[in-house]
Amino acid sequence: MSDLDKYRTQQEAYRAGAGRTTTTPYQEAVNRYLGAVAYGSDEPDRPTAAASRTVGSVVVGVDDTPTTYTAVDHAAIEAELRGCGLRLVHVQQPGGLRSPTREAGARLLQRLTDRVHAYSPTVPVTSRLEVGGAAALVLAQAQTASLVVVGHRHSTVGTAFGLSVADRVAAGHAGVVLVVRVPGWPPGPEFGSRPIVVGVDHDDSTAVWFALDEARGRGCDLVILHAGDDIATPALSDTDGVPVRHAYVTGGPADALIEASRNASAIVVGRHRTTGSALGSVSRTLVQHAHCPVFLVG
After folding, report:
1. Residues 127, 201: one domain?
2. Is the pLDDT assigned to residue 199 strictly greater than 60?
3. What is the tens place of the pLDDT at every residue in 132-181?
4. Membrane-spanning residues where (predicted)?
5. Contacts of 107 (CB under 8 A, 6+ apart)
6. Other residues' Cβ atoms within 10 Å of the Cβ of residue 241
7. Domain extent for 12
8. How far is CA 237 from each of CA 203, 205, 240, 244, rounded to the nearest angstrom?
């Protein structure tokens, strides 16, 4: 069964059960992709994408591994929720005895494009094949993007889009970066209903407002996790129906956020840069150890 056939079967099931359950936009999108556990080479039929979209784009770095295929799924969902286009960027390393061919890269990009069209048929997809340094080329493609998505491997092996590249893109991009960390993916069916958790340490109003907007678009709850003694809490005068809860922790904020990530659909934190473009200690720890995707803001 192709990706598109699976999608149609799932949609029929959702319509049949519409009177029994209510799903949020994010749940609906996630549930479509959770039906695709395997990342094979089958290329589904391609529905026609919607022509009218809003301004903005989501850029995602890809290679031929399950980790970054999952990153593409999350990037496509974000593009769908935002009503914008998706750009796939695949970077090949030059030289070497087993240097990948451009034909192999083109096939990968086409396979991923077909996958997105099968599960998010209204999302326009473009792709770019580059040769050189992965982090620098992803950052170059992402200069005007509203969101950059990178996958993060759950091991110490650094390859085309592994630990070092994710860290450098997360630290080097001036806008919002989503680092896709989901050990044990695919999760249970409750993943799409989990809240967004935003960490607040002193004045993190930019991260809070981004988290609120993200929760509004997903249709989920927002949990504001306060850490530290001197807390400046942004006044949420208009949450537009987003249920907001507050939690307070003492001690290290990184440990509290990592624990909260076990039951969150995403964590939002400020970058809190130290020197130059280096990530702050909390954001760097979350990129490496969170149990869910991490948004880095500011």
Report:
1. no
2. yes
3. 877 777 878 778 888 999 888 654 444 444 445 777 787 778 789 999 98
4. none
5. none
6. 8
7. 3-34
8. 17, 13, 9, 11
CB neighbour list of residue 173: distance below 8 Å, 6 or more residues apart? 139, 142, 148
Pairing of strands 125-131, 57-62: unpaired
When computed from its CA atoms, the radius of gyration of the chain, rounded to whole angstroms, is 19
Q: What is the pLDDT of residue 44?
A: 44
**Which has the closest alpha carbon to 232: 208, 256, 255, 267?**
208
**Within a domain: 42:** no
Q: Which of 202, 212, 213 is nearest to 272 (CA)?
A: 202
Domain count, the chain: 3
Q: pTM here? A: 0.80
Question: What gap in Å lies between CA 179 and CA 152, rounded to an integer?
Answer: 6
Answer yes or no: is 52 within a domain: no
Evaluate whether residue 51 is within a structural domain.
no
